[in-house]
Amino acid sequence: GIGEGDEVVLPGATCSVMANAVLRARARPVYADIDPETLGSEAGAIERVLSPRTRMIVAQHSFGIPCDIEPIVELADAHGIFLLEDCALTLGSSIHGKVAGNFGQAALFSTDHSKPLNTMTGGLVYSRNRKLIQRLRRRREETDDIPIAKQQALYQRMLLEREYCHPARYGRLALREIIERFSRPAASPFLGEDFGVRESRSYPYPAKLPGFLALLGLFELARWERVASERKKVLEVLVRKAESLGASRLFPAAYRDDNREIVPLRLGWHADNGAHQRRMLSGMVDVSWTWFMRPIIATREPLERFGYRWGSCPESERIGPLMVNLPCNVPAAWAGELAECLSSALELREKA
User: Could you give the CA distance from residue 82 to residue 104 in angstroms, rounded to a whole number?
Assistant: First the structure.
């Protein structure tokens, strides 16, 4: 186990819940800079922050892009450090023919409603280590359930998103959320207390995934092959559009790497005029959901409370405010609409 005095290396573009998991184990998160060409973890940056107290390396695959994981495996093996792959944003992508999540001793996958496989909240751990899986199963059995009121709220939110989370109806969802916020304000159905450094009070930590959401996950898995194929088609259309505009070099080099097969969640890139590009997109997509504009996202608290030192991840801090995202988790039929969004963002519309 990991505990007081231990260090865990996280990428300098991570979610607050990852830092919280380390802090709640009474360990210390240490942040390593990212590779701007994959937007994920990078072996050299990780090596620079290792210490005799390092017990775990978390290697993150961002936006569906596999990071350069093989040198990280070699680094972890050389130092005898546990390697956990963070696949919260990546499901089914591969590098050199090997699927992300199969390189480390274990991999975690998020099934939050903003992630590749959607069960509204929750996640899972994959490992080939039988002893580790047995320990995790025992921990799950010892874990309490989410309170019934929170489960009911999650169920209602699931029905709402089922009705409105489609490109043709996103605007109605935003309007309905505004109306409900003022007409009958209620507690969030999500486990938002994990975004701060204080212990959660209205639900246990960790908590079991409700049975109806686990069932939803099985339905999602059953249709995953088709969904993944559609997302790859969306990415292909967007990359071709950028190539036709002479702008493909704006994207991280990983998108042009034949050794990677990317099942995208979003198309992510950074540009010197990223803020302007986000403004151009704001009428078509919700740019408030742009990921990794700071080294730790999904929190309103100062990053120092998560143990982050400004200046420790200069590449992440440099490109964060320049980040732009386009969703790829839409039906392939909407790829053309997204391509026009991309043209607008780049202000490089094709001449008639």
Answer: 8
